[in-house]
Design goal:
The complex is a heterodimer of chains A (138) and B (252). Chain A is 33% helix and 1% strand. Chain A is built from 5 helices and 1 strand. Chain B has 252 residues and is an alpha+beta fold. Chain B contains 9 helices and 9 strands. In chain B, strands 1, 2, 3, 4 and 5 form a 5-stranded antiparallel β-sheet that branches. In chain B, strands 7-8-6-9 form a 4-stranded antiparallel β-sheet. In chain B, a hairpin with a 2-residue loop joins strand 2 and strand 3. Classes of the chains: A mainly alpha (138), B alpha+beta (252). Chains A and B meet through helix 1, helix 2, helix 3, helix 4 and strand 1 of A and strand 1, helix 3, strand 4, strand 5 and helix 4 of B. Strand 1 of chain A pairs antiparallel with strand 7 of chain B, so a sheet runs across the interface.
């Protein structure tokens, strides 16, 4: 049913990764699913789970500096001011280049024993807020 | 004591166990079933002394549950890393104490599957939008863009803060654009707001089998419409990871 090549009935803009990568797997399964502790009289076995540090959001000066840095990478500052639509059209494909999600870095840390160089470039972070979803009581 | 414990993958209807046992992903991962009345837990033996959470563990959890969902068998995914001491605990505590509830959860997933839409911004396009829309951001950008990175720190922090907040507002509006066309084809949905300069949102949808084509078409249209600013990736059909955490309101 799921085939490797992507069939697209329209312009082909919707990506259907198959198989999905490790970052997708992490995002899909972590903090999801039934929490069975709530339903059993016995204890879960305490297996040692490697830390997957993909869920910390830090709103800080450091974070804001990164936003400023990203904004200032836009080549908007021209003597006379460039037409922004030109900039957007030319640059729209490069926006996602080189980006790894915080989840990938967090998992790399767990499964490979750490690749600290990448952590310096970007903190591992994921969303702090959830909309339209009940928080699990725990 | 015991040097073997039991990793719990999920819950299926007892009547579906034969179909599940037929799947190669199930036998490859050593998954067995433990039945109680109308429900069965899917478990696999695990050595409790080993470190857990490696790539193979994550992939196995995902592959087993999605493989079962892919053949139309409703499965309630259990949280990653759940291990019980022995099979009698699985049967007599986990299953037996809540058998009716598990049967209800499984029934509520029959004929449905999850899709997960991952939306990210094309950073250059969206930041340009934000700069253009806010004069103060424009001013601070012009002030700081040409000076060295360690100069005008106060202005840079202020710039970053304004941009961060502008993106928060933009995300809220864009999330409505994403969910609006898809909600009519879904029984339920959950949205996780993205962060950073390019996160928009992750949205999970629970979709009836009969609505799949309509849902996928709507997602393709959305991707085309938004493609200059937003990149959309659709995963699925998947097991219902996002729809089993508490009393499911949609199942009533």
């Amino acid at each position: 049913m799921t085939i490797a090549t992507q069939e697209s009935r329209r312009g082909g803009y919707l990506e259907r990764p198959a198989p999905s990568g490790l970052a997708d797997v992490v995002e899909l399964i972590l903090d999801k699913g039934l929490v069975i502790d709530l339903y059993v009289r016995v204890s879960l076995v305490g297996i040692e789970i490697l830390t997957i540090d993909a869920r910390i959001v830090v709103a800080s000066v450091d974070t804001y500096l990164r936003f400023a840095e990203a904004t200032n990478r836009l080549d908007l500052y021209e003597r006379g001011g460039k037409d922004l639509t030109e900039v957007v059209e030319g640059a729209s494909e490069s926006g996602a280049k080189g980006k790894t999600s915080g989840a990938i870095e967090g998992v790399k840390k767990a499964v490979k024993g750490g690749d600290d160089d990448e952590e310096k470039r970007r903190p591992a972070k994921k969303s702090a807020s959830r909309q339209r979803r009940k928080e699990p009581s725990s | 004591m015991t040097d073997q414990a039991w990793y719990v993958y999920g819950i299926v209807a007892a009547d579906d166990v034969a179909s599940v046992d037929d799947l190669s992903v199930v036998s490859t991962n050593g998954v067995e079933s433990v039945t109680y009345d109308d429900v069965a837990a899917l478990v696999a033996p695990i050595d409790p002394s080993r470190s857990f959470g490696r790539r193979a563990d994550l992939v196995a959890h995902s592959d087993v549950l999605n493989g079962i969902a892919a053949v139309g068998v409703p499965v309630v995914p259990v949280a990653f890393g759940s291990v019980l001491g022995d099979l009698s605990d699985v049967r007599n505590s986990f299953l037996a104490d809540n058998a009716d509830y598990w049967a209800q959860l499984v029934a509520g997933l029959r004929g449905r599957a999850q899709y997960t839409l991952r939306a990210t911004y094309r950073e250059q396009a969206v930041l340009a939008e934000v700069v253009r829309a806010n004069p103060e951001i424009t001013r601070l950008h012009e002030l700081t863009a040409t000076s060295p990175d360690d100069a005008d720190i106060g202005a840079r922090v202020r710039l970053g803060e304004l941009v961060a907040h502008a993106l928060d507002d933009l995300r809220a509006r864009d999330i409505d654009q994403l969910t609006g066309p898809l909600m009519p084809h879904a029984e339920a949905h959950r949205v996780t707001v993205g962060t950073g300069t390019d996160g928009l949102a992750d949205a999970a949808f629970l979709v009836d089998d009969g609505q799949r084509d309509a849902f996928e078409s709507a997602a393709e249209e959305l991707a085309e419409r938004l493609h200059e600013r937003v990149r959309l990736r659709l995963l699925g059909p998947l097991a219902a990871f996002d729809f089993v955490q508490q009393e499911p309101a949609w199942a009533s």
